[in-house]
Design a protein that fits this description.
Helix content: 10-25%
CATH class: Mainly Beta
CATH topology: Porin
Number of domains: 1
Distance between the termini: 71 Å
Shape: globular
Number of strands: 23
CATH architecture: Beta Barrel
Oligomer: single chain
Length: 470
């Protein structure tokens, strides 16, 4: 049918490499902040119940950015990330018959979480972008990246997917203590997000035959579907939610425990270990403006659609089944176990399993399993997560929190040693924290010499809300 699909794949790969270009400035899941007990406004994105019994009374996240990019085909030969002068020639690993790639980026804006007795509240703002490729022929990747002729041939294309989505997110989180007795402590939380769609594109080739010849690829026959939304502010909107629960085995009896209450000197009590689970990103963006979707087979040539994606041609003449569709978020399940060796030493085990349907319009997240030793204090945190992305690709990361700044990566080796770089990842976060509620004092002040003007605006010692018992 003469379906030349290189335009849409070029578009999606260009989008993906644009995200990858942000690497040297988010990461798969920002593991360094997701496990840290002193960064709850980040941890609540993985599990909303993380803000209940949080270490700081108030955590204010100012800004955070980063990107994560990985694939099994394209690489920078004998290079180091951030050492631009060392960059070798981009190459393609033709030993991999079916290519895949995963890109994630986000910019997290003003966000906060606060502990109010047996309850906790949070909000966050961020812009996220995700893209993935699945089962792309290696020879076609070589054409896209190198533009060099390859030996002509006919290849089968089965179950190929290329998907991207960019959206803004404003979320509110609520958590509370569900049960406490003896050393048992159970909390739960929920996050509701308002979504603002910014960009979406998807292409599926269920099965087909592709001809590679003279530096271009052409789908000779096949069937599949596509969807697209012209990049624009509020091209659509929607809602999503995340649900989480955490069980803590505490060191002391917590039957009457209230986080940050007077009976614990306005602090929190430590746990020996905790086990948590959550479902995140359950929802999607409803494309309402500038969108289209269509299912095609050998009788229909969607080349006009592919050209409109690549060059901005008026899409009104593009074959379509409809104009509105839902691009689903990369929904997933997260499980976590954290053990406290005390003296600031912890060991964390984390698993993430994607729950999205491969045929949905909207990106898929990577599966992930990680083990992370961690040293954690009020002003310092160091962790080195060892992770397997998609349960097979090993990465060694490093994250450091010093005072208000957290810097990390989930794959540090390409920063240190020359190698063929298939993966790059980095993130940075800046925040402020208050550990005690205003007016909460360990000892009363006496006399005029101890008076401070700011006391006029603080709650009095007799006000039960000053350092509440709840």
């Amino acid at each position: 049918m003469g379906f030349q699909f290189h335009h849409i794949v070029r578009f999606i790969i260009a989008f993906a490499f644009t995200l990858g270009g942000m690497v040297s400035a988010n990461a798969q899941e920002w593991l360094g902040t997701a496990f840290d007990n002193y960064t709850p406004s980040n941890a609540m994105l993985i599990n909303p119940s993380a803000i209940v019994d949080q270490k700081p009374w108030l955590d204010i996240h100012l800004i955070g950015v980063g990107a994560h990019g990985t694939n099994n085909l394209a690489y920078l030969a004998n290079s180091r990330v951030l050492s631009f002068q060392s960059y070798g020639t981009p190459g393609v690993n033709l030993d991999q018959r079916n290519g895949w790639a995963q890109l994630n980026a986000q910019a997290m804006g003003p966000s906060a979480s606060i502990s109010l007795g047996k309850h906790a509240f949070g909000f966050h703002t961020r812009v996220r972008a995700a893209g993935n490729l699945h089962r792309l022929p290696a020879e076609y990747m070589q054409i896209l990246l190198e533009g060099n002729p390859v030996d002509s041939g006919v290849f089968q294309v089965n179950n190929m997917r290329a998907k991207t989505l960019t959206w803004g997110e404003v979320g509110l989180t609520y958590g509370m203590i569900l049960y406490q007795f003896d050393k048992h402590f159970l909390t739960g939380g929920i996050t509701v997000n308002r979504l603002i769609g910014l960009q979406a594109a998807s292409l599926f080739i269920d099965e087909g035959t592709m001809l590679v010849e003279n530096s271009r690829g052409e789908l000779l026959s096949g069937n599949g579907k596509y969807a697209y939304a012209q990049p624009a502010f509020t091209m659509g909107g929607g809602w999503s939610t995340s649900l989480g629960i955490t069980y803590k085995r505490m060191i002391d009896d917590v039957t009457s425990y209230v986080p940050h209450g007077r009976n614990v000197d306005c602090h929190t009590l430590p746990y020996k270990w905790k086990l948590s689970g959550s479902v995140t990103d359950l929802g999607g963006v409803r494309v309402k403006r500038g969108g289209l979707y269509n299912r095609f087979d050998d009788s229909e040539n969607p080349d006009t659609y592919l050209n409109s994606v690549a060059s901005g041609v008026d899409p009104n003449s593009v074959p379509r089944d409809g104009d509105r569709y839902t691009a689903w978020l990369p929904v997933g399940f997260n499980g976590q176990f954290d053990y406290n060796f005390e003296n600031g030493l912890f060991l964390n085990a984390f698993v993430m399993q994607r729950l999205s349907f491969p045929s949905s319009y909207g990106p898929d997240r990577s599966n992930l399993i990680a083990v992370s030793p961690r040293y954690e204090r009020k002003w310092l945190m160091v962790t080195m997560p060892f992770s397997l992305e998609n349960y097979r690709d090993p990465h060694l990361g490093l994250a450091v929190r010093l005072w208000i700044l957290t810097v990390g990566t989930e794959h540090i080796l390409p920063y240190l040693f020359r190698s063929d770089v298939y993966t790059a990842d980095a993130y940075v976060n800046l925040r402020l924290r208050l550990y005690k509620a205003p007016g909460c004092r360990t000892k009363p002040r006496k006399g005029i010499d101890e008076f401070k003007f700011g006391d006029l605006f603080k709650r009095g010692e007799k006000d039960p809300a000053a350092c509440p018992d709840w």
